[in-house]
Fold this protein.
Amino acid sequence: MSVRTSLGIVDTPPHAEPERPGRGFGDHWFALRNRLLASPAFQRWAVRFPLTRPIANRRARALFDITAGFVYSQVLVACVRLRLFDILAEGSQTLDRLATQLSLSVDATTRLLTAAAALRLAEHRRGGRFGLGVLGAALHGNPAIAAMIEHHTALYADLRDPVALLRGEQPDTALGRLWPYAARDRSAALGPPEVAAYSALMAASQPLVAADILAAYRLDRHRCLLDVGGGDGSFLTQAAAAAPELRLILFDLPAVAERAQAGFAKAGLSGRSEAVGGDARTGPLPDGADIVSLIRVIHDHDDDIALAILRSACRALPPGGTLLLAEPMAGTAGAESVGAYFGFYLLAMGSGRPRTAAELSGLMAKAGFARMRLLPTRRPMLVRVMVATKPDA
C-alpha cells in the first residue's frame, strides 16, 4: 500500500493499524468548543448576552456570506456585463434612466441596484438616485478585474458539481479548454487560434500584478531578463520601462511567442527584445540572461513539471544568476482565502496547486538554487515575490 504526497510516493506498512482520531488536550478543547457552537441553546444565549452578541453576529454574517457567495458573484457579473460601473462613473442616475440604459425593467433595475448597493458596488444617493460605491469605483478603475470577472463564468460552470470535480469525474472542463497548455501531451502543437483566448486574458490581468512585482524587486541591477511563460510580453514591456538598459527575452509556446514578438515591435522594443518559442517543461531555455522570471507560472503546474521548469531555469543561468518567482501563495497571512480560490481554480484547470513560500523554497532548493528570500509586496493577496540565487560553481 502507498500514500501519495505532494512530492511523490511514500510506502506504508501493509498491515498498518488504521489511524485513530487524536484525543490530546487540544482535541478535547476543540470538540467541546464545536459542541458548544453547534448547540441551538448556546446560539440563542450568545445573541442575547451583550458581551458575546457582537461576536455571534459577526460569525452569523460570515456564515451567511459564505452561503450567499455565489449570488454575490453573479450580481457582480451582471454589473460588469451591463456596464453598470461605466454608466454610474458618468454621474448618479435615477432608476428610470438606468433602466433605459441597461435595457431592463424598472423592477429588475431596482433589484440589481439594491443588491449592488448592499455589496458596496453602488450606493444610494439623494432623490432616489444611485451612484458608484467604493468597491464599484475601485473596479471601474481597474479593467483587469473586469476581465477576470467575465472569465470566471467558465469557473462557475466547472464548479456546478464540486464533488464530481474533486473526485476526478469531470475530466473535460471549461477552464481546461481555455488553458490548453495544462494538457501535457498537446501544448507544443497549439496554434494561434488555440492560444488567442488565454493570451488575451493574460494581457488583461498581467498589469494588475506587474507593478507590484517591479516595486518589490529592482531590475536595473541586471543586464538581461528571461521571462519564462511570458505570454504576450506584458510583464517584459513594463520591465523595459522600469529598467531602460535591460535586454529582454521572452520564452513561451511558439504560437504565443509569435504574438509577443509582434507586441514588442508595436511597443518599439524590437531592438532590445526577442521572443523564443519552445516548451519550458521539456526543452532547454535560452541562455544569456542573468535573471530568469517566472510570473504566475509555477502554481499552474504539478510538482514534477514545476521542478523541471525550475531546473531548466537554473541551467540557463550563469553562476550567481537570479531567479525571480512571483505568484499568489498559500498560507499568506491575512489572505488565506487565496489558497481556497486557487485550489479549486487549478483543479478545474487540470494542473497545478497553490503552494506556500516554504514549499516553493523546497522546490527551488531541489532545482539547485540557494539563498531563497521572500520579498514584501504591496498587495500580497494578489502576488508575492521570492528571489533565489544559482550558487557559484
Q: What stands out?
A: The two ends are 42 Å apart (CA to CA). The first strand starts at residue 2 and ends at 5. The chain has two domains: 52-141, 150-389.
